[in-house]
Design brief:
132 residues, alpha+beta, 45% helix, globular, 18% strand, GMP Synthetase, Chain A, domain 3
């Protein structure tokens, strides 16, 4: 895969900033105060046709529901984004939302490290593999 051009990076950063504002405003309108949604990364194709938006949702039990909701409303979100960015971009990319579960992954690693059964120091926890 080719590296992103500086233009792609700038456009992705602007889209990330404006989308974050739109999503936070919609969460406030719905009255959801116990939910945190943050946009962790946005990547844009060279022709600006598509944008991948990676989201982190806390608490993570609601993540699939909110990602699905955002994907279903992506046309409205794209329209709202185009109204905000009409003086900056001529073409707004199609938005595709994905779950960024890196925080859950980090949490699993931390809990494994804090586990009293350390597989490195206690060799009895390892299952030996048969030699070939």
């Amino acid at each position: 895969m080719n590296a992103e051009t500086p233009r792609q990076k700038k456009i992705a950063a602007v889209i990330q900033k404006e989308l974050a504002g739109l999503i936070q405003a919609s969460l406030r309108e719905e009255g959801l105060s116990n939910l945190i949604v943050s946009i962790t990364k946005v990547t844009v194709t060279i022709d600006l046709a598509f944008a991948k938006v990676f989201l982190s949702v806390f608490p993570s039990e609601f993540s699939s529901k909110h990602i699905k909701s955002l994907q279903e409303n992506s046309f409205k979100i794209k329209h709202d984004l185009s109204q905000i960015m009409k003086n900056q971009l001529r073409k707004i990319p199609q938005l595709n939302f994905y779950l960024d579960d890196s925080l859950d992954y980090i949490q699993k690693i931390e809990s494994a490290l804090k586990n009293p059964e350390n597989p490195i120091s206690e060799s009895g926890l390892f299952t030996s593999q048969p030699k070939k």
